Amino acid sequence: MFNKKFKLSSAKKQPAAEGEKSKENEEKTKSTISPLKSVFIKSVGNAVHNSSDLKVKSIHPNLTLIYIDNLVDGEVLKKHIIHDLLGNTSESPENVLSVLSIPNAKLSGEIDGAITGMMDGTVLIHVEGYSQIVLANIPTKESRALSTPENESQVIGSQVGFNESLTTNISLVRRYIKNPDLCNEEIKVGERSNTAVSMLYIKGIASEEMINMLRQRITDIKIDSLLDSSILEQLIDDNSLSIFPQMLLTERPDKLCSELLNGKLGVIVDGSTMAIVAPHSFLEFFQSQEDINLRWQIATFARLLRFSAVVLSIFLTPLYVAALTFHYEVIPQTLLVTLSESRSLVPFPPLFEALLLELIIELLREAGIRLPSKVGQTIGIVGGIVIGTAAVQAGITSNILIIIVALGALASFTTPSYMMGNVIRIIRFPLILLAGYWGFYGIMFGFCFIIIHLLRQTSLGSPYTAPFYPPRVKDWRDSIIRMPLPFTFKRPSNTRPEDEDKYEPGPVNPEKNEQKVE
Amino acid sequence: MKKYRSYILYLLLLISLVGCAEKKLLEKVGLTTLIGYDLGNEDNVKTTAVVRQVNTEFQSQVAIITSENETSQGTRTKINRRSSKKIMAGQLRGVLFGEELARKGVGHYVDTLLKHSEMSGSVLLAVVEGQSKSLLEFEYPDIDDIGDHIYKLLEQNIKGEQMISSTLHEVGHDYYSPGRDIAMPILKKDKELIEISGVALFKNGEMVGKLSAKDSFYVKLIRDNYNTGKLEMMIKGDELPSSLMKNPSDRIDLVFDPIKTKKELKLVNQATPEFDLQINVKARLMEIKPYIDVGKPKNVAKLEKAIGKSLSEELSRVIALSQEADSDVFGFGEYYRSTVRHSDLTQEKWHGLYKEMKVNVHVDFTLLRSGIME
């Protein structure tokens, strides 16, 4: 509700602001390119506020190159542009264009676009006496080498992760899906940062409606800058106030490709190592790309383990607090003695004890991220062993709670998506508070609240709790369990794919494979 | 902002409700594991509570606190005055009744226990020969925690199908449904041990008689079905042709191990009333004395017949005994009520009929195996 209103109000404000801007733009577009060399250099200099890395180079008296020093590839500039133009005597932009051996050089008569291009590594070639210039795009190819995905590592499967370069990332995807139907729409986001955002989808699989919706959401953004895809995800998801992420952020190209082939849409932001995948249901956040690589029995086991880990992680500590504060009846008789013995030295009520320990664990986790990697491990040992055992001996917490809290923290890290893992860990705190104040009633209240909240969410317009609500029994084959491949030939209906079948459902054990080598 | 006003109201409500729930912190609760009720002076009730004491340095100990008052809940407040922790009954496992009190009636106590929301339905009930106080207060050298011990003693025997089950849930059912009476195990202090000595028979919540521990097998045979039980029985020597035995004797002792039973009850005459009770027993022979060759099918058939006959006689005897005491622990009345239309059976009406009831018992015994040898 709030979200819609928020979007509406921001939409209302925009026309007025846009009006002013469009007027300015009109004035600027009027400023055409001056045929005079000195005037042209001055106007470009003004546009970039005479930045010190703006380079002006004259080859002939009437041929001038203007570029930003650190953005263009010096090697290409020297070998191709300068070398090609030195022997050139005829003086017209068309001629210059024909001489240049740069593939994406073009003519332009408008200064604004030229300056924006210059910020992206374009060399402006001005010919004295013409109001048209040649633009040659030769950006530097500075990028980190491809490396393994740090946050989503897996044992079986490809070991390559996205890096910060948009072109590299797209080429990675294109290498997985060699298909002309793989569409790449580039949209510029950010009035100041002018960040390139690529929207990827496979035509003929992805639903047209969803493509339009996502394109609309990205183009509607009025923001000055966009530095990472995680920011874009918060800007374009269905309910940005919810604690649950509604779009997946992944750094695995194989994950993105498998989701694209499922009929989902992907978004890659220049300068970001994470791709956005949408629509993504709640359940799918707990599925790993590795599940499809492993045999189905093992994958099913891993998934069941992961789901039970989530339940454990959310409810174990609250249950401990509730049972010890209100419902001593439910504690099994055999556990009663050990439990009360370990609690008898603790001076705090269970609620405070649990919160304290949970905070210590969170503290360790947070410190582990911030600390330099060389110290990080030491801190893990200090935190785990020293604080853990000392806390019990000092009588601050009970042994059993240490086990429960550690188990809960460990379980929350089994979630393949880091964003969702965070949610699972944080959502425990309100539940612990509820358990400490109202016991099992509080936990039930919190649980119902979470369920209702989840049921209300959508991901790119499709239900967040699918395939369980609304029940889509066919999709259960690949949900908390993973059936063997011959059974999972359908694309998830959550994506409303244009083409529903991934492949022809064949017999489970084809006879043609029975040819034996003698 | 108007939209959020209701949310803020809920939030305020939630915050203001903090502390309204009654806290029962584990370490501040005195956990009663067993309660014994006895008859005190002038119709008072004497309650003996076994309270578990938690101690870090030593092993956990139990405290036994006794108090006397007009009501059972009244004794609880009195016990509270002598304890450093609040006495709570949520971990209660067993309730014992002194024999004197049981003869005066346990209905009131069953009713009170059932109304207690903390109380689990699986609390076991039993009658004590003599006073429950003296049974609980005695210092047994081999028993650390008397509350735990008595519960496990009863539970083990009930699970092993050696004794009729008497959980609070079942006893409540027996007490309230017309045509059914309560049966509970009887506990007895035997020197330095506690023993299940028999089955107490009740009529309208008052104890009216007892059966021996051995007879509890037959009570259970009619009440429930067996799955794993064990039985030791004797058949008279003249039931079998002496040619079967090498050394003919006048009694044959048998032990059966996993017993499986199926029973069928039929009302053949409404007026008397008369029942046909057909019980199919399947069992494995564990031990037989003197030696009979059970490898021969002919012998087995004869043996099965003799055992079936002997079992029917025993069952008839037990039914007659409880008829004498006027206690329908088998639930014949309940069957009568459910099969006879407009019977409007009440407890009094049924007890009028019960004395005259006739049961034709027929037991079909099948010997499954006679042991496995390697």
From TrEMBL, chain A:
Annotated GO biological process: spore germination
UniProtKB keywords: Membrane, Transmembrane, Transmembrane helix
Keyword Transmembrane listed: yes
UniProt feature, compositional bias: Basic and acidic residues: 18-30
Transmembrane annotation, as ranges: 304-326, 376-394, 400-419, 431-455
Keyword Transmembrane helix among record annotations: yes
Region (Disordered): 1-30, 488-518
InterPro entries for the chain: Spore_Ger, UPF0353/GerABKA_families
Gene Ontology terms: cellular component: membrane
Family statement drawn from the similarity comment of this UniProt entry: Belongs to the GerABKA family.
Protein's name according to its UniProt entry: Spore germination protein A1
Origin species: Filibacter tadaridae
Highest classification ranks of the organism: Bacteria, Bacillati, Bacillota, Bacilli, Bacillales
TrEMBL record, chain B:
Keywords: Germination, Lipoprotein, Membrane, Palmitate, Signal
Domain named Spore germination protein N-terminal: residues: 23-188
PROSITE patterns, alphabetized: PROKAR_LIPOPROTEIN
Residues annotated as domain Spore germination GerAC-like C-terminal: 197-371
Native source species: Filibacter tadaridae
Localization per record: Membrane
NCBIfam families: spore_ger_x_C
Identification of the protein by name: Spore germination protein A3
Family: Belongs to the GerABKC lipoprotein family.
Membrane topology: Lipid-anchor
GO biological process, one term: spore germination
Cellular component terms (Gene Ontology): membrane
